[in-house]
Write a structure and sequence with these properties.
Blueprint lengths: L1 H9 L18 E4 L4 H17 L4 E6 L8 E7 L8 H11 L4 H14 L9 E6 L5 H14 L3 E7 L2 H13 L11 H16 L8 E4 L5 H9 L11 E4 L15 H7 L12 E5 L6 E7 L3 E5 L1 H18 L8 E6 L4 H10 L4 E4 L3 H8 L4 E5 L5 E5 L1 H9 L5 H16 L7 H15 L3 H5 L7 E6 L8 E3 L4 E4 L3 H9 L6 E6 L6 E6 L3 H15 L1
Parallel strand pairs: 2-4, 4-5, 6-7, 6-8, 11-12, 11-13
Antiparallel strand pairs: 1-3, 2-3, 8-9, 9-10, 13-14, 15-19, 16-17, 18-19
Bound molecules: 2-acetamido-2-deoxy-6-O-phosphono-alpha-D-glucopyranose (16G) and zinc ion (ZN).
The site of zinc ion (ZN) has 6 residues, from loops.
């Protein structure tokens, strides 16, 4: 513990204003980068403990603030199979980071070690990566100091997308086993995706050029690198990469990227041509939104709900063609932000079950893992499709009775390798969408006609204390403050196809209100009325 105290003195935390404390939230610790050095040091201590508590399995640490402004940063822990940190440990992270002195930090560290019967002579291993934010340098220095002080073996993977780090954690922990997830390197990630992409296409042609807006983040250089691995003799993939300047940190996520497109409901100002099939990544390349601008039809946006229903419909059909519909359960997981029209399309038209969970990847992921094929996306474009072991075995071992059945089985197996099984991945999801559009011979317009979104509006409401807003029913209703939900219900009742909810943000100091209704003006009005109730 002397070594921890000594190292901690070099990377102290900053005392927050009266009454405030650090919290491991939906995205780990996320705030202004200059508050994060000591926090990251302490996250390093916890990652080491977590590794030892799990018998020396490798734990990941990712340093990123995703779609947030360049001056922010964040740090979060990745569990051995590439999932988000277990919830009980989020509390431990919060406790460690809020220790007030170096000595109490060391005591807290010892207390956790005792609770999990940790043997300090046993091995611990941590791997980490960061996005392109310049503040990342200082934070990884603090992280490495904690790993050194605790005798933890580590690998610094330098600059990565968030999903690449998740891939590497899983690949490291499964290396040399029958569950091997791929080669343990960034190259291994590209090779796996490029190979699965070619196989999933099965000779189908990709229609025209795809423009990719990389939010001036890590996705830019990584996409360019990936493209080198595509087998040119088998696949013609014409990609135009835009907003890929990572040398000017101040333009990261600035008026571009998936979050900008989704929340402003418009294309980035620069570089996007009319009628070009376009998609946007966010700053750490784990969110994806497709869109097109068109002189007569205006702006067409295909968000996470659309990607979800596209994937569910295509994979559902393949499972049918593969003769596996009686064997494999397929389901869709959404949050309260999913457009009501998408939920209706999936349940009534695709006839698939939909489960609603609270916001945040860990909630969706967990529920999706309960299906053989679990499709989960947040409307903001974060999501993936999970395949159970039984599903992958069936794709591999079913003996086809016809060429069509063989094709379906081959494509399903390729998709299970193409789609990132650990977390939402903009690059992997984009390749999945391109494969599906190629098979269906669809343009973005075709895709957009599957259903019509209900007009909707999201507003951010500044409140004195967001923590008084407590929700039930997967965040669709407020249980506290008492009486507020009844007032919201009274407003919602007045609108055709009306739906609205309010919840405390998990990443910002504010409440969010979402409303949808039959027309744009009614959706706006309903959102304003609910916002007034919450304020
Ligand atoms: C985080 C979540 C994202 C969620 C968002 C909601 C992860 C990896 N990210 O960015 O899924 O949509 O928070 O933010 O879980 P809010 O609570 O501020 O609305
Ligand atoms: Zn992100």
């Amino acid at each position: 513990s002397d070594s921890i105290i000594a190292a901690s003195q070099k990377h102290p935390t900053v005392a927050l204003e009266h009454g405030q404390s650090y919290k491991y939230g939906t995205a780990g610790f996320r705030m202004k980068a200059d508050l994060l050095e000591g926090v990251t040091f302490r996250v390093g201590l916890l990652a080491s403990l977590r590794s030892r508590a799990l018998g020396g399995q490798t734990i990941g640490v990712m340093i990123t603030a995703s779609h947030n402004p360049a001056a922010d940063n964040g740090v979060k822990i990745v569990d051995p199979m590439g999932e988000m940190l277990e919830q009980d440990w989020e509390v431990l992270a919060t406790d460690l980071v809020n220790s007030t002195t170096h000595e109490s930090l060391a005591e807290e560290y010892e207390r956790i070690a005792k609770r999990f019967k940790i043997d300090f002579t046993s091995p611990a291993k941590v791997i980490y990566g960061r996005d392109t934010r310049p503040s990342g340098h200082k934070l990884v220095t603090a992280l490495a100091a904690a790993l050194t002080a605790t005798g933890t073996e580590y690998v610094d993977y330098k600059i990565l997308t968030t999903p690449q780090l998740h891939y590497l954690v899983r690949a490291t922990n499964t290396e040399g086993t029958p569950q091997s997830y791929g080669e343990v390197s960034e190259t291994g990630y590209y090779k796996k995706l490029a190979d699965a992409f070619a196989r999933a296409l099965k000779g189908r042609k990709i229609n025209g050029q795809l423009t990719v807006d990389c939010a001036n983040g890590v996705g830019g250089p990584k996409l360019a690198e990936f493209l080198k691995y595509i087998p040119q003799d088998k696949v013609k993939f014409d990609v135009k990469v835009v907003n890929d300047d990572v040398l000017r940190p101040e333009i990261l996520n600035l008026e571009c990227g998936a979050d900008y497109v989704k929340t402003k409901q418009r294309a980035p100002a620069v570089t996007v041509r009319h009628q070009a099939r376009t998609c946007s990544f966010d700053g750490d390349a784990d969110r994806l939104i497709y869109y097109q601008t068109d002189s007569d039809k205006g702006f067409i946006m295909l968000d996470g709900d659309r990607i979800s229903s596209l994937a569910a419909s295509f994979i559902g059909d393949l499972i049918q063609s593969a003769g596996l519909s009686d064997e494999l359960r397929i389901g869709v997981v959404q949050t309260a932000y999913a457009n009501g029209a998408s939920t209706n399309y999936i349940t009534s038209h695709l006839r698939l079950p939909v489960i609603c969970t609270p916001t945040g990847v860990k909630h969706l992921h967990h529920v999706a893992a309960g299906f053989d094929v679990g499709v989960y996306f947040e409307a903001n474009g974060h999501g993936t499709v999970l395949f159970s072991n039984a599903a992958v075995r069936a794709f591999r071992e079913t003996t086809p009775q016809s060429p069509a059945q063989k094709d379906a089985l081959d494509i399903l197996l390729a998709l299970s390798e193409l789609i990132n099984q650990t977390v939402g991945d903009a690059l992997s999801d984009m390749l999945m969408v391109e494969v599906i559009l190629a098979h269906k011979v669809w343009t973005l317009q075709d895709w957009a006609t599957t259903y019509t979104d209900l007009p909707n509006r999201l507003v951010r409401v500044e409140v004195k204390d967001k923590d008084i807003f407590k929700t039930t029913d997967a965040e669709r209703r407020l249980s506290h403050p008492e009486g507020v939900q009844e007032l919201i219900d009274q407003e919602v009742k007045k609108y055709k196809d009306g739906r609205a909810f309010a919840r405390a943000s998990g990443t910002e100091n504010a409440c969010r209100v979402y409303a949808e209704a039959a027309t744009r003006s009614e959706a706006n009005e309903l959102a304003d009325r609910v916002a007034r109730i919450v304020k």
